Amino acid sequence: MHDARPVQSEVSGYISNLLRQHFGKGPASVYVTMKRPYITIHFRGFVSPMEKILLDQEEGKRVLETRNFMFNALKPEILNELWAITQLEFTELYADWNLTLKSGMFIGVMGEEDIKDPLEWPEEADRDIFHKQVERVNEEAARIPDTIETMWMSNRTLLLKRSGVLVGIEKALIEEGFIEILKLTKRPLEQKLLKAAPLNHSLQREIDEIFMDWNFSQDVGYIAFILSAEPRL
């Protein structure tokens, strides 16, 4: 792989141009972080003129449906370009959007998930308590995941992977083809529960944003927490 900083800059430029080309307006900023086996791409200031009109008319669901449709169509192109830029093979790509803050997140996952390059947990944060809190949130929403893994991508980005998250009714909906409807329903519910949980106490950071997405065929889900820059006093 090339030197990390120029690669991150190149990925940032590519994502900016891609969104501008397909949505008519690019983001104001893009932050790229790579820690094997993941890449996170966090962008801000992203809403097109047409989307703004729809949002003003409280048509946020339509905006999300259109973005998800576009993202799924662009996913192969994005994965190919990530390989061309980084020389790393990302086999999965996830996305979520925060329409209120005009931000979004792409999460790429390499095929070689056993190769990890993590940051240590900060001294002030309690990993075990944080995992227990996430388990309780998941139990309230559906079920406790079979496994929870966390990885600090940077000082402000904490990535969480959940395996074994689906219950029977969700699997039935997926089999019937209601994948996007399930995602649009699960996201606001789980985000509400996560925001209500005392996660900021175990992390000793304020949580600025939460993004999440799933691979239902593999029964896994990812959550990206964007945290405040400084620990709580």
Automatic annotation (TrEMBL):
In this protein, which residues make up the domain named Na+-translocating membrane potential-generating system MpsC? 7-110
Report which superkingdom the organism of origin falls in. Answer: Bacteria
Pfam families registered for this protein in UniProt: MpsC
Q: Which InterPro entries match?
A: MpsC
Instruction: List the protein's name.
Output: Na+-translocating membrane potential-generating system MpsC domain-containing protein
